[in-house]
Amino acid sequence: MAMGEIKELPKSWAMLGGDGPESYTQNSSYQKGVVDASMEMVDDGIMEKLDLKSLGFESTNDTFRIADFGCSVGPNTFFAVENIMKAVEHKHHAQFNNSAPLSGFQVFFNDVTTNDFNTLFKALHSNEKYFSAGVPGTFFGRLLPRSTLHFAHSSYCLHWLSKVPTEVLDSESPAWNKGSIQCDGLKKEVTKAYSAQFQSDMSTFLEARGQEIVGGGLMVIITGGLPDGVLMSQAGIGMYYDLLGSCLIDMAELGVISEEQLDSFNLPLYYSSSKEIEEIIKANGNFSIERMDSLSHNIWKTSRETKIKVSVTGGRAVFQGLLEDHFGREVAEKTFENFETKLDENFSIIDGAAHEHIDHFILLKRNVN
User: Fold this and answer.
1) Cβ neighbours for 97, distance < 8 A, ≥ 6 positions apart
2) Burial tier of 2 (Cβ tally within 10 Å: 0-12, 13-18, 19+)
3) pLDDT at res. 10
């Protein structure tokens, strides 16, 4: 891409595909840790809140249907799905003592159309326990027939917005986010624009899932967030994104990219508080909140070297495609080269941040109409 050419941010984006050394498949250990940390909560939720009798499984050997929204390219989606199935089987045995055995499971794997579904299904081992299907398309809308699902799952997806708010890219707007690539919480107008987009997206997601999930069915949402009252700029994750942005600012100052290109790039991410999420769910009205909690992640208990490696390789797997699309491959490659150096030099500041982001765990139950 020629310097100065400004490209609109895409409406959807996928993690780095394939199974090579820089792929999301090989560099999603943080997201895997989130899935691992949630397993016990998922088990408890199914045992305590899923009533298979009210769903009709006492009188029929119907297929139990699961969907993972935002599955990416694996393998984390498989770990999550298999854990859900084991918990459902355990609950079925406890509730019916195998008097009406399940006929099996059907699993829908959903992500955007640009997701590498070939790599996903290549990694799917032959498994007689469930039938699988890919469902390409944005989850900010209906994807399945009404009352299809008994259990929905979405891990580490909903802090991604459907789009960057238009106001933050408009130089005439009070919400113009010049000088930053993220919603750092320091400018009220920017935060308001991002928060409104998150509210709209989350409401749309809940409305669509409300139509697809049967009454009494469950949904687990795991998403990145912030403690109530904490700004993104005060959290280590916000400093991480600022450091990534500083690499782009350096290239603009050197003339590698134009100032216009820089100002037209913002990350489509919003880390919400639990209070914001709770208000959106209650306003939607389709679900009852059965549990809201935060997850404890073991990745931050590892060595400095491991943290830096995960931060760089994981960041590349997540953001490489977005940067390439906006700035071109050469700039994206250089960004991560410089980022690794800067992260090594500044890691003690990020690691010692007064606050850290949290990973929200939310268990919802579809209201029976």
Assistant:
1) none
2) exposed
3) 44
Task: Give, as one character, the DSSP assignment of residue 97.
Answer: T
Q: What is the CATH number of the domain that holds 48?
A: 3.40.50.150
Q: What's the pLDDT at 310? A: 85
Q: Is residue 165 part of a domain?
A: yes
Q: Could you tell me if residue 7 is inside a domain? A: no
Question: What number of other Cβ atoms are within 10 A of residue 280's Cβ?
Answer: 18
Let me know if residue 12 belongs to a domain: no
Reported pTM: 0.93
- Give the C-alpha separation, 187 to 178, whole Å: 11
Residues 6+ apart with CB under 8 A from 260: 4, 6
Q: Tens digits of per-residue pLDDT, 79-129?
A: 999 999 999 999 998 988 866 678 799 999 999 999 999 999 988 876 667
> 118-175 pLDDT, tens per residue?
999 988 876 667 999 999 999 999 999 999 999 999 999 999 999 999 999 999 999 9
Q: Which pLDDT score, from 0 to 100, does residue 4 have? A: 42
Domain of residue 132, residue span = 29-366
Question: Average pLDDT for residues 269-294, to the nearest whole number?
Answer: 98
Q: Could you give the CA distance from residue 169 to residue 7 in angstroms, rounded to a whole number?
A: 12
Q: Quote the number of domains for the chain.
A: 1
Residue 210 inside a domain? The answer is yes
